[in-house]
Amino acid sequence: MILYEIASTILGRVSDPTALVFGILLLGLVLLWTRFYKAGKGLVTAAVIMILAMVIVPAGDWMANSLENQYRPLVELPALVNGIIVLGGSTEPMMAQAHGQAALNASAERFVYLSALARQYPLA
Length: 124
Prior knowledge:
The protein has helices at 2-14, 17-31, 37-56, 59-70, 93-99, 109-120. By secondary structure, it is mainly alpha-helical.
């Protein structure tokens, strides 16, 4: 389990677009001090353009809004509910393990809604 968490953390950070752009920038800066100066200059320029695009263009908001607008919230909940499913991602397992208690992140409102639904549907 710990190996899975370490591997997922490393792969998550390496596949993060910000980390990839930072890696390109770092490689370009290193190449500036070698005989591959032109390649380094190109990589630094590309990384700066990507950083500017990431800062200026709200692509994440566009994608999230298009998904959120596809599925409207229910106006009225059904009388009978057989179960309640809560999506993951609202806890920080490594932080919880380090401190010996639950560690929640910005998505913790899922647990608030879970408790409200659990009170409303005690047999679910």
